[in-house]
Amino acid sequence: MAFDLTSLFGSDDLLSQDGASFPVTGLAENEVIGIYFSAHWCPPCRGFTPVLVAKYNEIVAEKKKFDIVFVSSDSDQNAFDEYFKEMPWKALRYSYREQKNTLSTKYEVRGIPTLVLINPKTGEKVSDEGRNIISEHGVEAFPFTEEAISGAAARKLQQKSQKFADNFGKGFEAFGKEATIGTTGEKVSMEEICSKQYVALAFGGEQNYEKFVLPILNSIREPIWEKHGEKSFEIVHVPWEGSGDDKSLIKQVAFPTISKDAVDETMLKDIFGDIHSPAVVLVSGDGKTVVTDDVARHIYMTKESAFPWTDATIKEYEAEKVRMKERVANAMADGFKGLVTDKRDFLLKNGGENEKIENLANSDIVGIYFSAHWCPPCRMFTPELAKVYNDCKAQGKKFEVIFISADKDNNAYAEYFKEQPWLALPYKERDLMEAVQQAYDITGYPTLVLLDSTGKVLDKNGRSKVQGGAEAFPWGLI
């Protein structure tokens, strides 16, 4: 039985740009349709709509079977009317508010603008990433299947690789003969940089680069070198968007930085497109291949674990996260074995010593403390927890705590751990930390999960329990 599009839109009556009624069934002739959730009052929507209009016109001009239905989140009819004038496609009538809510729920719309791509023959979702797909690839990725998107991305990378090779195929001399490590002043030759298998060009200058991306870039080189060898990877900071004279930023860069004078923005934009910091482009050290367009988000989300951040390594990283979560969740309730790795059977103590994980069995209650240096409520609660912990120790009560960090870099972790008198997982084992968080469904900080001596969960809201202080230990839990 054919899918009934009227069941999706609530009637057979959509609005055309000329104000006439358009039958919903007329959409069935398309190969793909987009449902565009947007609003006149939303600045990101107003920024994306002209882009979508241009891409839509290109797709239609190529005679592709594609259409869009605008589903408004505007506050009144006038705003809807004004906004819809900018759009060449169809719209769900503004008065159909209930159906708008039904569509938002069905396709799990969490914010706007959102472009959901669906198959009009089945009503099934093709992708909820239509905004990114069409912005990035346009008609080249039609009909927006995974295969078509991969093909479009591959062709784009091939084009960029050719331009990259034309300018950098004989080495990175286009960036000068050497670079300087900002934190130390050490000189690194371009010849050495070219000897690396992969080079990440980090376009830095925007505030989010300094705040979020740079600390992670500073932290990933050595773990990658340790696992894959020093010839595997290098990062080059490319001063961008007016950051060339920002000496305070350069002094924070713990990897090679090229001179602003060596940055030919016109050439780089011709190769890589319209670059906005924070962007990180992964290229081959031989100057012949653009490996990945922009890996900044992948690096931010996966750190060094998904290196070199290709589709294959990202998929394997995601699969391993699921496997690790399951392993940790099962092993934590078996004498805390979820904290043990092939190379480590201990936890760190504040003084630099180690504590065997098997010794946790000697505690009556063990708290898993999820916290971070950047989190104000965490910084307020940590001294309170430290007092309870120290009082318990002084009174001979068997209470232990393990710090699981959500800090963004090792320096913040180390600084914060100085304030904590208990145990911790090493910061470099961030994948394990994340798996422990997932195993206990941690969604906010600070969170204190209280376990018994075997690893069984006693209370996931340990913060409220320990308010009773050491005198109330074990807080009615055992």
UniProtKB/TrEMBL annotation:
Gene3D superfamilies: Glutaredoxin. Residues 1-154, 322-478 form the Thioredoxin domain. It catalyses: [protein]-dithiol + NADP(+) = [protein]-disulfide + NADPH + H(+); [protein]-dithiol + NAD(+) = [protein]-disulfide + NADH + H(+). Keywords: NAD, Oxidoreductase, Repeat. Its EC number is 1.8.1.8. It is an enzyme of class 1 (oxidoreductase). It comes from the Eukaryota. The keyword Oxidoreductase applies. GO terms for molecular function: protein-disulfide reductase [NAD(P)H] activity. The keyword Repeat applies. It holds the Pfam family Thioredoxin_8. Belongs to the nucleoredoxin family. This is protein-disulfide reductase. It comes from Aplanochytrium stocchinoi.
